[in-house]
# Entry
Amino acid sequence: MNLIAAVDKNWAIGRNNELLVRIPDDRKFFREMTTGKVVVMGRKTLESFPNGLPLKNRTNIVLTHNKNYKVKDAIVVNSIEELHEVLSGYADEDIYVIGGETVYRQLLDECDTAHITKIEFEYDADVYFPNLDEMPEWRITADSEEQTYFDLEYFFYKYEKKKRIASVSNGVAGR
# Structure
């Protein structure tokens, strides 16, 4: 599974259920990566979209504890177990976790790729993405040249989880 997010210097992702900034090329990148794919999000993330509507041309899956929550053109699940059941019908590489903070943290260990737009600015924020730079199992495998939007500098990074090396049985190779 994939994660996709735009973060500031402190790995902040939002404030008051809004993105910190809207950068056209970041939005274009998000669209290119997720169109035709499965997007997994929490209820508050969905409600932050224009008119609270699911994203077009994607399979939208909303994870919420609210058992009465319904939304047109989206699959609503009420537990991680139920989410896994629904996701079992899709290829891992076609699944993108798109927020918010709680959903990122719940699914981080199950993901092996993260597409992160890092904005070289510190915002006043109230929600954060896990800091992959502080996690030894994650490493940057691709990056962009510096991008600018007005006076903001930002970079596109691809993080991948290091593959665990299988331990050799009884210390003897070739069995």
